[in-house]
Amino acid sequence: MDQSTGGQGLRLFIKIGFRLALLYGALGLGIEILHRFLPAGVYQRSAGALSALPSWILATLGLDGHLTAALVQGEVPGWLVGAAIPLVGVAIILSLSLVLGLMWSFGGAVVSLKNR
User: Fold this and answer.
1) pLDDT, tens digit, for every residue of 76-104?
2) Distance between the two ends of the chain, CA-based, in angstroms?
3) Which residues contact 57 (CB under 8 A, 6 or more apart)?
4) Which pTM does this prediction carry?
5) CA distance 98 to 10
6) Judging by beta carbons within 10 Å of its beta carbon (0-12, 13-18, 19+), is residue 69 exposed, middle or buried?
7) Positions of E strands within the chain
8) I want to staple 101 with a disulfide (CB 3.0 to 4.6 A). Which of 10, 23, 49, 52 is the partner?
9) Helix axes 84-114 and 40-61, enclosed angle (nearest 10)
10) What distance in Å separates the CA atoms of residue 17 and residue 107, rounded to the nearest whole number?
């Protein structure tokens, strides 16, 4: 693995992450659009599966309470609070792909230096 392979790997990971983030957003949007046509159980399970990790991260950071309080007090519009979970989900996917790509690139640089 040489330096160019590491750079190609970084681009590949970012490209895959971007596509996964788009897929995640499209699935979430599709579920919300079809909300009225889906049975309640199907909607709840699918929405819960898509928002489990982002919801957990918001709760762990203590941001869910702040978002709810800001919504109740009228400081933040409802659409912004509703967009927080998908935004965190997309950010997780993109961040993870960037980190994996950088690790791959760094590994390529280390192997390249080792082989000199």
Assistant:
1) 888 888 888 888 899 999 999 999 999 98
2) 12
3) 88, 92
4) 0.76
5) 7
6) exposed
7) none
8) 10
9) 60
10) 19
